[in-house]
Design goal:
Helix content is about 40%, strand content about 45%. The chain has four helices and six strands; from the N terminus they run αααββαββββ. Strands 2-1-6-5-4-3 form a six-stranded mixed sheet, covered by helices on one side.
């Protein structure tokens, strides 16, 4: 009887592991909240050591401190009024979100790629809409 219960418990845990793993691969809610409120400081907390940025005329791999300054400058020039999540997903150890960033100076298409809850790539491009 004890062996059967132990077997069932192990089987349940084994079946739930893929679900738990996929949930932990999502882009952290704090990143999405920071985008919605235009909180560059909160967003900067999730930057990787090096970040591939595509913001305005800055398209390169930057250090964390350089990236932080570029993101802060962007949010200072473009007061965020909202963020709409359009799509999210994950593959292997990476996750991403695609959305629309609404600002006082226009609408931008935004893409973020994360690994281990750190932003690896951030694209903010003018929207064609």
């Amino acid at each position: 009887m004890k062996t059967t219960k132990l077997f069932l418990l192990c089987a349940c845990i084994f079946c739930l592991l893929p679900t738990l793993k996929s949930q932990s691969l999502e882009v952290p809610a704090e990143i999405l909240n920071a985008l919605n409120s235009g909180d560059a400081g909160q967003l900067n907390n999730y930057l990787n050591t090096n970040v591939e940025l595509f913001i305005e005329n800055k398209n390169d791999v930057f250090s964390k401190s350089q990236s932080s300054q570029i993101i802060t400058d962007f949010f200072r020039k473009n007061h965020v009024t909202g963020f709409q999540l359009l799509h999210k997903g994950n593959k292997d150890a990476a996750s991403f979100v695609i959305g629309t960033l609404k600002t006082s100076s226009g609408t931008f298409r935004l893409y973020i790629l994360t690994r281990k809850n750190e932003i690896q790539q951030l694209r903010i491009e003018p929207s064609n809409d």
